[in-house]
Amino acid sequence: MTTESQHRRPKIVVMGGGTGLPVILRNLKGHDVDITAVVTVADDGGSSGIIRDYVNVVPPGDIRNVVVSLSQLPPIELELFQYRFNSSDQFLAGHAIGNLIIAALSEMKHGIFGAVQELSEIMRVDGHIYPAANEPLTLNAEFSDGTVLKGESEITAAHKLVKHVWVTDSNDENKKPAAVDKVINAIMDADQIVLGPGSLFTSILPNLMIENVANALRTTQAEIIYICNIMTQKGETEQFTDADHVRVLNDHLQQNVINTVLVNTQKVPDEYIDYQRWNEMSTQVKHDFKGLRDQHCRVISADFLELRDNGAFHNGQLVVDELMNLLGQCGTRYM
């Protein structure tokens, strides 16, 4: 056995968007693993949405936060990259400096994929960051009442039960969205693929609805792990159990692809959640362990809860500790 093979680092692909993805990546960064983050490009809200409307680039907000989570730059430089102009600045009001830099690099490199690779070098990123597609995508949703909406922010604001989502090319609805080869190769070469945590329909599924990504997930030999949400989301996943979340993923991928589910069993204290501040949160996700086993899932249930700011979130360190345990169970593959 060669020295190179003895020191091969396990390859982990983490897929998602929103605020959940950086939580996992920040805690993975300190481990001896080869990290690839695949980031959704279907966000159309806030500063990202405004930049997208005027500059016609992939919305940069999720990418900016992922870059920071994996960057090895000093805190002051990361603080500058994340700085958001206040409302008195009029023209620049609400924009984060990092979003503007990503938009500029996208024009210079003729696409978001090359821009993010260049930015990763500048920001001393420990790992790989791959936008799910090289062009902006539009998220589409059909609701349980038969109505259809376009746009991540519109879908979220509707607070209606989502039946099905799909993505289209924002610039050409007749063009089939596709991930670049590096994304597909990362999925196929991975030892572990992590989905979430994050909004089921607007952060996780947009990546999976790209056809060649879905095909890769159906055929990869990697263990596919879903980090189930702690709270349901108003309208979108109200009354969902953990098994319902997995069922939606499997149904969209037309195959039972989820191998392992991480489920939080720690109770969120009554009256703790500030529902006015965290208005997307609804109730704590209920458990249906039989429903999970019926979908051939291994279930790992533990305390993954972090209570802060009157909200319920995943404790990134506890989640990553479990991911490392799962890699250790197949330790002979990495020696």
Explain this structure to me?
The protein is of the alpha/beta class. The protein folds into 2 domains: 3-40 and 132-334, 3-Layer(aba) Sandwich (Rossmann fold), CATH 3.40.50.10680; 44-131, no CATH class. Helices cover 39% and strands 20% of the residues. The chain has a 7-stranded parallel beta sheet with strand order 3-2-1-7-8-10-12, with helices on both faces. Helix 9 runs parallel beside helix 11. The protein is globular. The termini are close together. Belongs to the gluconeogenesis factor family. It is found in: Cytoplasm. Keywords: Cytoplasm. Its main location: cytoplasm.
**How do the strands line up in the largest sheet?**
3-2-1-7-8-10-12
User: What sort of overall outline do the alpha carbons produce when their principal axes are compared?
Assistant: globular
Report helical residue fraction.
Answer: 25-40%
**What name does the CATH topology of the largest domain carry?**
Rossmann fold
What portion of residues belong to β-strands?
Answer: 15-25%
CATH superfamily of the largest domain: CofD-like domains
Mean pLDDT figure: 89
Q: Nearest-angstrom radius of gyration?
A: 19 Å
**Residue windows where pLDDT falls under 50 for at least 5 positions:** 1-5, 51-55, 331-335
- CATH level-two architecture of the largest domain: 3-Layer(aba) Sandwich
By helix and strand content, what is the structural category? alpha/beta
The N- to C-terminal Cα distance equals 9 Å
The H-and-E topology, N to C, reads as: HEHEHHHHHEEEHEHEHHEEHEEHEEEH
The number of E-state strands comes to 14
* Main beta-sheet strand count, sense and barrel state: 7 strands, parallel
Subcellular location: Cytoplasm
Keywords: Cytoplasm
Family: Belongs to the gluconeogenesis factor family.
GO cellular component, one term: cytoplasm
